[in-house]
Amino acid sequence: MKSDFLTSTTHFNHSIFNPKIPSRNFRISIKSSSSSKVRPDPWSLSDGNPEKPKPRYERPKHPLSDDDARRIIKKKAQYLSTLRRNQGSQAMTPKWIKRTPEQMVQYLEDDRNGQMYGKHVVAAIKTVRGLSQRRQGSDDMRFVMSSFVAKLSFRDMCVVLKEQRGWRQVRDFFSWMKLQLSYRPSVVVYTIVLRLYGQVGKIKMAEETFLEMLEVGCEPDAVACGTMLCTYARWGRHSAMLTFYKAVQERRILLSTSVYNFMLSSLQKKSFHGKVIDLWLEMVEEGVPPNEFTYTLVVSSYAKQGFKEDALKAFGEMKSLGFVPEEVTYSSVIGLSVKAGDWDKAVGLYEDMRSQGIVPSNYTCATMLSLYYKTENYPKALSLFADMERNKIPADEVIRGLIIRIYGKLGLFHDAQSMFEETERLNLLADEKTYLAMSQVHLNSGNVVKALDVIEMMKTRDIPLSRFAYIVMLQCYAKIQNVDCAEEAFRALSKTGLPDASSCNDMLNLYTRLNLGEKAKGFIKQIMVDQVHFDIELYKTAMRVYCKEGMVAEAQDLIVKMGREARVKDNRFVQTLAESMHIVNKHDKHEAVLNVSQLDVMALGLMLNLRLKEGNLNETKAILNLMFKTDLGSSAVNRVISSFVREGDVSKAEMIADIIIRLGLRMEEETIATLIAVYGRQHKLKEAKRLYLAAGESKTPGKSVIRSMIDAYVRCGWLEDAYGLFMESAEKGCDPGAVTISILVNALTNRGKHREAEHISLTCLEKNMELDTVGYNTLIKAMLEAGKLQCASEIYERMHTSGVPCSIQTYNTMISVYGRGLQLDKAIQIFSNARRSGLYLDEKIYTNMIMHYGKAGKISEALSLFSEMQKKGIKPGTPSYNMMVKICATSRLHREVDELLQAMERNGRCTDSSTYLTLIQAYAESSQFAEAEKMITLMKEKGIPLSHSHFSSLLSAFAKAGMMDEAERIYCKMSEVGTSPDSACKRTILKGYMSCGDAKKGILFYEQMIRSSVEDDRFISSVVEDLYKAVGKEQDV
């Protein structure tokens, strides 16, 4: 039995009726009952005549049979006013129905005054509720309710029962209720009791009540059964709930959607996702229509169980029915798609969610960031992170850890560090994974110290180190080649379980790089005893150790072991080793190898290494012959030899080359070039020439061979041969390349062979050889040092027209070219071009331009440029200050000189011996003898050591000016300060006497000051002879 009343009393299927409230502007006009017509009133009551029902729309009708209608209408208006003020989401309002006059009289007698129930019902409710404040058992329900006997109808008693809050009052009142004459057993009242017991968790009493209902012959309906199921679900009695549910199914009672939702939600809270799915399938089979909440639960359970297809199917049905999934539902299917590797589907779901205007949660964002990280779609990841900041979605530690890793992959190491510091500042830094993400970023950037600092930070904060932390520590120590710390990290890793193959490979590579052969062999033996699972990379490294150490038996055992492992036996590396192990002893050698589709070059190199270490030339020759017969041919040999060269094992590379030459086989050009380059670095020019000649016997040597041979000649100091080979190859149309040309021209220039350097430069221009920026810079500099300024200018013009970009060195050299050629305007133009190029102008180019301004007498321009350099943030060095000091001193700008010296001291640039030498030279050249001598005195006072150079400039200036007395005084002053005059100073003062025509005085000075201390110096002797000849005393020389 089911009624509207029952529906309104059950807790899981509320039926709340909200009456239509009239507009505030609605006015009611009522005439007297004697009137023939009454103005239509939609709120008027019926007169009870079924043949003349109340009109639905406003139209004239008969007068009411009750003359008290106006009072009823006022009471109703008061009630509605109160309702508008007080009603909330749980307001229960009475349903206005059509009443007969007799019903209306009864309604008036009840005098509810806008209340839900009559006065007697309200009084009964209050009376029973009041018992909750008394001690249990102190009052008898019969005594308390004695005044209500025969006054409450069955419906009234149900209302009183329904309005109770305490389970004891429900129990006692229900017992009293069953004693009343108006009581009749009904599923309605039992349902009310079941609901109230269920709300407070009195499941045992609810079960007893349900059994009592069955005993009295009340057949439970869907509402009663649903109430019982919801009680079980509410309190987590899932076993009893499912058992009861089976019984309900057997009675073919169809439950409502809300009951199913209640059960599904309860099962899901306890993570019984399998049972959720089973119940969902039964719900579908029963034909119960699911709502939005049902689909949300089901999709989530499918996702938790990993049933991608079922989850997506339910998700699709949900959308097809017009339901808009919540963010958590989208998040579930997106996460499921990512785990299943269906990345395109996940991206599509995310974009669909965003198109619905749903803001993703940080969990969904973390899932998508993880997806973009796996697919290396870093721009999308950064865009998503920007959207999170824009939508003010808080980024938790997981998201920040992912962003740190993404920044690391993009090389944005500073941004990664900033994100890590911000995470720490926000007190979100707690998970080990975030620390290790930052540590790995530092490790990948090459900053191992910072990577270890992050791990040390974890230790100081008492964050326990996991297995992964020890792996990262091992990688750090292996990179900086710290054997002791790496071994300690490996031991700590071993305590957490069996070491992984990658960590073992890191340790073994460390031992190999440091040539710790014994440790490497012992390590391999130990990890084999520990039964570490080898991967192919670890097998390769172990094989490399055995081959390098010449351990033939161990290598053979390892090859057999690899051949038995299903995971690696089909690898090309393993198959190549197996085929080439004993190639001489195989009967059908050629066919055996041809069965391998492609040989592994690394494996062949290892076998060659093993046989060379063993000294087994027959096996070595057989392997080489085999390699030349395969499709790889000489390229494989080239890669093997190159690998030996890279690893520094040149002797094996040489031995292989000798065997190849003796066997009459031909090496590739790159192999010959590599070996010639090695011989050149070792200054083995004879061996290099032998290889070069061997390469030229079969065909004309290629560019790489010629480049290597020229480089070998240059390294060994045979510049004439290098020059000859270059010119010969140039005649044949071979361009050795910009690097080789730069090396050769630079070597010739440094050796002073400017003519040959000029010939090479002209040849490059004539033959239109391809030069890069460095090549053109080298040629321009060579012509500058050779004094071929016009040729340097032509090379620059060629560089400009060829479209080769200029570097800052290019502009600096050209300023020197035009400055030396006294073409200041062109030098200024070059400097302006450098400014417009966007290149960073360094101190060197500013100093160069300042120097040429000074030489041209453009003092104001030099000072202005020096000031501009400082404004650009370039701090002048000692050479720049010395240059400015010299310019100002030469121009007699003493105040500026003092300011520059003070600025040097302020900026930490010491005024050393070179600074004062510059000042002395400048003052001497400009005939400011007093200032020059003042500088010498100042140096003496400051304790700066004086050298011959400081005196020779002033001495030379006095001699040139004919001031021999002053020159003689300076000469004597040198001895006073402990600086003995050198040969240059002696020659200078003697020449001064000769130049001013005072030979006698010069001879006298020579005999008194110089003769006793002079050594055999042909230059001094020549000047002395001239002095004696000048006075006619040649015989006295």
TrEMBL record:
<feature type="repeat" description="PPR">
    <location>
        <begin position="361"/>
        <end position="395"/>
    </location>
</feature>
<dbReference type="InterPro" id="IPR057027">
    <property type="entry name" value="TPR_mt"/>
</dbReference>
<feature type="repeat" description="PPR">
    <location>
        <begin position="807"/>
        <end position="841"/>
    </location>
</feature>
<feature type="repeat" description="PPR">
    <location>
        <begin position="947"/>
        <end position="981"/>
    </location>
</feature>
<protein>
    <submittedName>
        <fullName>Pentatricopeptide repeat</fullName>
    </submittedName>
</protein>
<dbReference type="Pfam" id="PF17177">
    <property type="entry name" value="PPR_long"/>
</dbReference>
<feature type="repeat" description="PPR">
    <location>
        <begin position="912"/>
        <end position="946"/>
    </location>
</feature>
<feature type="domain" description="Pentatricopeptide repeat-containing protein-mitochondrial">
    <location>
        <begin position="934"/>
        <end position="991"/>
    </location>
</feature>
<dbReference type="Pfam" id="PF23276">
    <property type="entry name" value="TPR_24"/>
</dbReference>
<dbReference type="Pfam" id="PF13041">
    <property type="entry name" value="PPR_2"/>
</dbReference>
<feature type="repeat" description="PPR">
    <location>
        <begin position="702"/>
        <end position="736"/>
    </location>
</feature>
<dbReference type="InterPro" id="IPR002885">
    <property type="entry name" value="PPR_rpt"/>
</dbReference>
<feature type="compositionally biased region" description="Basic and acidic residues">
    <location>
        <begin position="49"/>
        <end position="69"/>
    </location>
</feature>
<dbReference type="Pfam" id="PF01535">
    <property type="entry name" value="PPR"/>
</dbReference>
<dbReference type="InterPro" id="IPR033443">
    <property type="entry name" value="PROP1-like_PPR_dom"/>
</dbReference>
<dbReference type="InterPro" id="IPR050872">
    <property type="entry name" value="PPR_P_subfamily"/>
</dbReference>
<feature type="repeat" description="PPR">
    <location>
        <begin position="772"/>
        <end position="806"/>
    </location>
</feature>
<feature type="repeat" description="PPR">
    <location>
        <begin position="256"/>
        <end position="290"/>
    </location>
</feature>
<feature type="region of interest" description="Disordered">
    <location>
        <begin position="32"/>
        <end position="69"/>
    </location>
</feature>
<feature type="repeat" description="PPR">
    <location>
        <begin position="326"/>
        <end position="360"/>
    </location>
</feature>
<feature type="repeat" description="PPR">
    <location>
        <begin position="291"/>
        <end position="325"/>
    </location>
</feature>
<keyword id="KW-0677">Repeat</keyword>
<dbReference type="Pfam" id="PF13812">
    <property type="entry name" value="PPR_3"/>
</dbReference>
<feature type="domain" description="PROP1-like PPR">
    <location>
        <begin position="261"/>
        <end position="397"/>
    </location>
</feature>
<comment type="similarity">
    <text>Belongs to the PPR family. P subfamily.</text>
</comment>
<feature type="repeat" description="PPR">
    <location>
        <begin position="186"/>
        <end position="220"/>
    </location>
</feature>
<feature type="repeat" description="PPR">
    <location>
        <begin position="842"/>
        <end position="876"/>
    </location>
</feature>
